[in-house]
Amino acid sequence: MIKHSRAYAIAGHVALILVTLSMIAPLLLVFMSSISSESALVQDGYTFWPAQFSLDAYSFIAQNSATVFRAYGVTIIVTVVGTAVGLFLTSTLAYALSLPELPGRRTLSFLVFFTLLFNGGLVPAYIMWSSLGVRNTLLAYILPALLVNAFNVILMRSYYQVNIPPEVYEAAKLDGAGYARIYFQLVLPLGKPILVTIGLFIALGYWNDWTNGLYYVSDPNLFSIQTFLNRMIQDIQAISNNSTGTVVTSNVPTVSVRMAISFVALLPLLIIYPLLQRYFARGIMVGAVKG
Predict the structure, then answer these.
(1) Half-sphere exposure of 271 (CA within 13 A, CB side)
(2) Burial, 24: exposed, middle or buried (Cβ in 10 Å; 0-12, 13-18, 19+)?
(3) Average per-residue pLDDT in the chain?
(4) What is the average per-residue pLDDT within 23-36?
(5) DSSP letters for 68-118
(6) Which long-range contacts (CB under 8 A, 24 or more apart) does 266-273 make?
(7) Nearest CA to 265 among 233, 217, 222, 218?
(8) Contact 198, 188 (CB under 8 A)
(9) CA angle 74, 153, 123 (to 5 degrees)
(10) Contact present, 73 and 226 (Cβ < 8 Å)
(11) What is the pLDDT of residues 246-267, one digit of tens each?
(12) Could you tell me the CA-to-CA distances from 84 to 4, 10, 77 in Å, in that order?
């Protein structure tokens, strides 16, 4: 029995090490490629150890530092506002669905689940948001992504049902507390792990989103970091494909710049994620106990 447990533990550790390496390796490859010279990348391809080190890609980005910082500012505003509003909507809907006495609870739960399977599609969404006048505004980033994600609602509702006993609600009601007071003074403090977890999900969605900027934003002053990086990659590709721009092309490290751009966009998330990891593990595991 002891040998069996030890073998199981060793196999588990080996599996976790392999999974960890599979996640770290792409990040390491991106960073190493970003500090490789353009000629080495073209000749040898992507490698974990550059044949020739070069910071030309980061120098190229530094030349556009004002635009990069402005794009970072837009991204931070959109992420903070969108995450706060999205988390409030998600938590209030999950709280309501967790209450057994809610009228039409099964129907509402089905409607939330239905959105996991079907959606209106890109064209109706584009027509709707364009008609609402969100183009070239910060709302173009916030509103389309603000629609509540059904997976997050179900995860949070399950957490509330498992971790907040009905006796707590009953005791609060006997003391004269209404639903709003119970939500703000009981549900939110007790649901801190799942709030941080879902908040991280929503924040990652806003930070990594580049499609809404592609569809609805053409003003360079309103580019988010992902939209700016996407446009920069397209511009580099356009320069590379321009037969009359051979002088400019020779000065632009097109391949390494792509890697440097990707690493710059990932850097804030790599810093923030370890700080929230303990809440993330508790929230996602407990919330997934039952549906």
Answers:
(1) 6
(2) exposed
(3) 81
(4) 86
(5) HHHHHHHHHHHHHHHHHHHHHHHHHHHHHHT-TT-TTHHHHHHHHHHHHH-
(6) 266/27, 266/30, 268/207, 269/204, 269/207, 270/27, 273/200
(7) 233
(8) no
(9) 60
(10) no
(11) 444 456 667 777 788 778 777 7
(12) 48, 42, 11
**Selection from 257, 264, 256 nearest residue 39 by Cα:** 256
pLDDT at 279: 67
Arithmetic mean of pLDDT, 43-64: 81
Say which DSSP state 136 is in. Answer: T
Ranked by mean pLDDT, the top range of 50-64, 81-95, 184-198 is 81-95
Beta bridge partners of 53: 36
- For residue range 267-287, list pLDDT tens digits in order: 777 777 777 766 666 655 555
Return the structure tokens found at 61. Answer: 């980005």
DSSP state of 220: G
Q: By three-state DSSP, how is residue 3 classified? A: helix
Q: Which pLDDT does position 245 carry in this prediction? A: 43
The whole-model pTM stands at 0.76
Mean pLDDT of 102-109: 87
Residues with Cβ < 8 Å from 31, sequence gap 6 or more? 259, 263
Burial 94-120 (b: 16+ CB within 10 A, else e): bbbbbbeeeeeeeeebeebeeeeeeee
C-alpha to C-alpha distances, 109 to 160, 213, 286, 291, nearest whole angstrom: 15, 32, 20, 11
For 86, the token pair is 């999205």
Cβ-based neighbour number of residue 154 at 10 Å: 19
Q: Which amino acid type is present at position 7?
A: A
